Amino acid sequence: MSIQWTRRARRGTVTLIVAAGLALGAVGCGGGGDDNKPEVTASAPREEGTDPSPQEGQSDEPLAELRGSNGLMLAITSADRDAGGFVTVNGTLKNDGSKSTIVPSALSGNETEIIRNGRSLGGATLVDSKGKKRYYVLRDTDGRPLTTSGLSTIKAGETLAVFMQFPAPPPETAEVTFQLPTFASGTIQISG
């Protein structure tokens, strides 16, 4: 390749990137000119005494609260089955202790492929007692667990939102036992 060709290619690439940036900026900042629109609010006010609909958020009551080592606590807030054949478990990991704690490496489980990808909640499982099956955290094509990863130290009182994705048990299975190394087990209900 000649030096001139390389320069032209670089100049063309830079021009393309700048044009794309300007186009995105114009779309993002475009007004539409209607100043009479009402401002969007985060949530609509609710009437007293009405129950929240599923669209208004989740229950304040967790499905399960599991205690772990070093003052860690996992509150499971939802376990949702989707049409694709997966169950996503959401929750919060909190340090209830009085000092910072290192997230135990045992939470990643003992599979070499998962350990290679750093600290995560890859050791979590769902157990279907009736179907006599255990469901492990899913992995992507590179072997990374489909769960919160990059966990290291949690300060005292700090809370982290976490998730784990599993293959879904059969539709008739609604109750499973959630297990995570170093934590107590807990029974949770799968919705959906």
UniProtKB/TrEMBL annotation:
<protein>
    <recommendedName>
        <fullName>Secreted protein</fullName>
    </recommendedName>
</protein>
<feature type="region of interest" description="Disordered">
    <location>
        <begin position="28"/>
        <end position="63"/>
    </location>
</feature>
